[in-house]
Write a structure and sequence with these properties.
Layout: H1 2-20, E1 24-29, E2 39-41, E3 44-46, H2 48-60, E4 63-68, H3 74-80, E5 87-88
Parallel strand pairs: 1-4, 1-5
Antiparallel strand pairs: 2-3
Length: about 90
Amino acid sequence: MRFWIVLLVFASLITGSLHAQEKKFKWGGDREGGGPFIYEDNGTDVGFEVELVEYICKKLGRTPEFVQNDWDTLRDVLNRDKTTIDVALNGYEY
């Protein structure tokens, strides 16, 4: 009986900590570049890459978080500091 109680407590601790540590998927882009990639419509980000990131996050079980950058610096930000953004989008191919 103790085994099951310990197992239940352990499982609830793990589940709670995993939920609390839900990882964001930070993606960089530049709203100023406009559509069709990302642009603001009535205070909401819309565009092809917004939909793409939402799809990727759904598959990964992560939450998208947009990080505004200048388009010219996206590659540098990605290479310099891996904690700032996870991926650079916005019509950017390398």
